């Protein structure tokens, strides 16, 4: 084992010396040089003997003001960002191909520019003529956004360092390449290097950098997962191709609540904001039909009502089909198992199809009761009342567990004309928003009271 290397440092001026001496040659102080142990003695070279500077530390009761925010004027985007764009922040936006990421980012850059911010849009995928054609189609040709088309990371950073805009959009990170990495653009090494340089530039210069990223077939942002850890905010742009609705969801946000969503509608003139998504998701709901249940959910800080649709039909296959869209298929399988084991309601030999209307994705456990109600309604061919909403988590024992923010759920339901809610018996609710509350202890009593089954 190699002998640890020690260093000698002047306690007066901090100068480093190879060996001890009575007098510091840097400041001339006598008997100020002391021996210091190296920072690292592990395998390999480690940090070696050289010591760094001491960083300032502060207490938890610091009076430092919160970071300033720059609103874009697009209310749904500002909601997801936590109130606006923070200078020096790095934001990663991912989504399926053709979902509208470039359209959203061009509209956002135009909104920031029109609000007085200096906005730069750099594209590595499209030519300048294509971007101008899109801007004309969206009615943004008069926005003071400066466009650039480049894929060389060194040239992009040099330009941004010279211009120092308030916000810079990079579309997309998979097209960038660094001349210090011997790999093709889009590879893991290139994506990691580009993300590191862009995030470092944002922190050093105070420029808010918005990075667009592609996603894999599993819906995750392509490239190393470390990119999501490096940035401050990770946004996913979601939506079904057959629906006009688009959901911008914050899965990570260091400057605001995670899980917040913004709802947009894709139109011929670009993405339009949806101020009341609950009314829009329920707009096509007509007369009560079997297999339909309305779930009062919470997305971030916003209550959202969605319709869960189910279809149960006899199967001709040895293994019946289980098709789920917009819900966790594992959660649905668990609810089916609980219905069979605790309520003696079999689904063997039956095909089950579940869908969330409008292209919405629901991952909240509070949707369990609404999923069970839709399944039972479809199986028994018994429609639920049109003025009823449901929420509650189902445990493996069949008991119904309480969920959070019940008052906000009921308030949103009442605002949209619902007058009755079915919820767990142990759910604590202050008031009720003028709604009739039907409490049930477990899934067995719910099926018996509502459908006469079990």
UniProtKB/TrEMBL annotation:
<keyword id="KW-0234">DNA repair</keyword>
<feature type="region of interest" description="Disordered">
    <location>
        <begin position="38"/>
        <end position="71"/>
    </location>
</feature>
<keyword id="KW-0479">Metal-binding</keyword>
<dbReference type="GO" id="GO:0003684">
    <property type="term" value="F:damaged DNA binding"/>
</dbReference>
<dbReference type="GO" id="GO:0005829">
    <property type="term" value="C:cytosol"/>
</dbReference>
<dbReference type="InterPro" id="IPR027417">
    <property type="entry name" value="P-loop_NTPase"/>
</dbReference>
<comment type="similarity">
    <text>Belongs to the RecA family. RadA subfamily.</text>
</comment>
<keyword id="KW-0863">Zinc-finger</keyword>
<protein>
    <recommendedName>
        <fullName>DNA repair protein RadA</fullName>
    </recommendedName>
</protein>
<keyword id="KW-0862">Zinc</keyword>
<dbReference type="InterPro" id="IPR020588">
    <property type="entry name" value="RecA_ATP-bd"/>
</dbReference>
<dbReference type="InterPro" id="IPR014721">
    <property type="entry name" value="Ribsml_uS5_D2-typ_fold_subgr"/>
</dbReference>
<feature type="region of interest" description="Lon-protease-like">
    <location>
        <begin position="351"/>
        <end position="454"/>
    </location>
</feature>
<dbReference type="Pfam" id="PF13481">
    <property type="entry name" value="AAA_25"/>
</dbReference>
<dbReference type="GO" id="GO:0005524">
    <property type="term" value="F:ATP binding"/>
</dbReference>
<dbReference type="InterPro" id="IPR020568">
    <property type="entry name" value="Ribosomal_Su5_D2-typ_SF"/>
</dbReference>
<dbReference type="GO" id="GO:0008270">
    <property type="term" value="F:zinc ion binding"/>
</dbReference>
<feature type="binding site">
    <location>
        <begin position="95"/>
        <end position="102"/>
    </location>
    <ligand>
        <name>ATP</name>
    </ligand>
</feature>
<dbReference type="Pfam" id="PF13541">
    <property type="entry name" value="ChlI"/>
</dbReference>
<keyword id="KW-0346">Stress response</keyword>
<keyword id="KW-0227">DNA damage</keyword>
<comment type="function">
    <text>Plays a role in repairing double-strand DNA breaks, probably involving stabilizing or processing branched DNA or blocked replication forks.</text>
</comment>
<dbReference type="InterPro" id="IPR041166">
    <property type="entry name" value="Rubredoxin_2"/>
</dbReference>
<keyword id="KW-0238">DNA-binding</keyword>
<feature type="domain" description="RecA family profile 1">
    <location>
        <begin position="66"/>
        <end position="215"/>
    </location>
</feature>
<keyword id="KW-0067">ATP-binding</keyword>
<dbReference type="GO" id="GO:0140664">
    <property type="term" value="F:ATP-dependent DNA damage sensor activity"/>
</dbReference>
<dbReference type="GO" id="GO:0000725">
    <property type="term" value="P:recombinational repair"/>
</dbReference>
<dbReference type="InterPro" id="IPR003593">
    <property type="entry name" value="AAA+_ATPase"/>
</dbReference>
<dbReference type="InterPro" id="IPR004504">
    <property type="entry name" value="DNA_repair_RadA"/>
</dbReference>
<keyword id="KW-0547">Nucleotide-binding</keyword>
<keyword id="KW-0378">Hydrolase</keyword>
<comment type="function">
    <text>DNA-dependent ATPase involved in processing of recombination intermediates, plays a role in repairing DNA breaks. Stimulates the branch migration of RecA-mediated strand transfer reactions, allowing the 3' invading strand to extend heteroduplex DNA faster. Binds ssDNA in the presence of ADP but not other nucleotides, has ATPase activity that is stimulated by ssDNA and various branched DNA structures, but inhibited by SSB. Does not have RecA's homology-searching function.</text>
</comment>
<dbReference type="Pfam" id="PF18073">
    <property type="entry name" value="Zn_ribbon_LapB"/>
</dbReference>
<feature type="short sequence motif" description="RadA KNRFG motif">
    <location>
        <begin position="252"/>
        <end position="256"/>
    </location>
</feature>
<dbReference type="GO" id="GO:0016787">
    <property type="term" value="F:hydrolase activity"/>
</dbReference>
């Amino acid at each position: 084992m190699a002998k640890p290397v020690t260093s000698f440092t002047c306690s007066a001026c901090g100068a480093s010396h190879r060996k001890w001496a009575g007098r510091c040659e840097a400041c001339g102080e006598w008997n100020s040089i002391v021996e210091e142990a190296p920072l690292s003695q592990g395998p390999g070279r480690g940090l070696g003997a050289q010591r760094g500077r001491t960083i300032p530390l502060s207490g938890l009761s610091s009076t430092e003001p919160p970071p300033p925010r720059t609103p874009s004027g697009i209310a749904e985007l500002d909601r997801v960002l936590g109130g606006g764009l923070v200078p020096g922040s790095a934001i990663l936006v991912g989504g399926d191909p053709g979902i509208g990421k470039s359209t959203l980012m061009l509209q956002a850059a135009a909104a920031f520019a029109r609000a007085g911010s200096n906005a730069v849009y750099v594209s590595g995928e499209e030519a300048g003529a294509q971007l101008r054609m899109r801007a004309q189609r969206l009615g943004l040709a008069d926005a003071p956004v400066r466009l650039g088309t480049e894929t060389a990371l060194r040239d992009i950073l040099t330009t941004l360092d010279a211009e120092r805009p308030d916000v810079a959009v990079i579309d997309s990170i998979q097209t960038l390449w660094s001349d210090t990495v011997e790999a093709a653009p889009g590879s893991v090494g290139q994506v990691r290097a580009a993300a590191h340089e862009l995030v470092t530039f944002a922190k050093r210069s105070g420029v808010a950098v918005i990075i667009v990223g592609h996603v894999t077939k599993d819906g995750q942002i392509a490239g190393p997962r470390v990119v999501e850890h490096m940035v401050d905010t990770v946004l996913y742009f979601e939506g079904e191709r057959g629906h006009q609705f688009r959901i911008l969801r914050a899965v990570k946000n260091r400057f605001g609540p995670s899980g917040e969503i913004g709802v947009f509608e894709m139109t011929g003139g670009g993405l339009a904001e949806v101020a009341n998504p609950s009314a829009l998701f329920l707009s096509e709901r007509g007369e009560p039909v079997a297999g339909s249940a309305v779930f009062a959910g919470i997305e971030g800080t916003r209550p959202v009502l969605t319709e869960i649709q189910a279809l149960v039909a006899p199967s001709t296959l040895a293994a019946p089909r289980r098709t789920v869209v917009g819900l966790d298929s594992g959660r649905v399988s668990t609810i089916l198992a609980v219905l069979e084991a605790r309520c003696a309601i079999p689904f063997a030999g039956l095909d089950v199809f579940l869908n969330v209307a409008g292209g919405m994705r629901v991952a909240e456990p509070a949707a369990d009761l609404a999923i069970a109600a839709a399944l039972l309604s479809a199986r028994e061919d018994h429609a639920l009342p049109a003025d009823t909403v449901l929420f509650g988590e189902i445990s493996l024992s069949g008991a119904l567990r309480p969920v959070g923010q019940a008052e906000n759920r009921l308030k949103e339901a009442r605002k949209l004309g619902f007058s009755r809610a079915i919820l767990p018996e142990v759910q604590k609710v202050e008031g009720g928003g003028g709604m009739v509350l039907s409490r049930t202890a477990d899934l067995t009593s719910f099926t018996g009271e509502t459908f006469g089954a079990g």
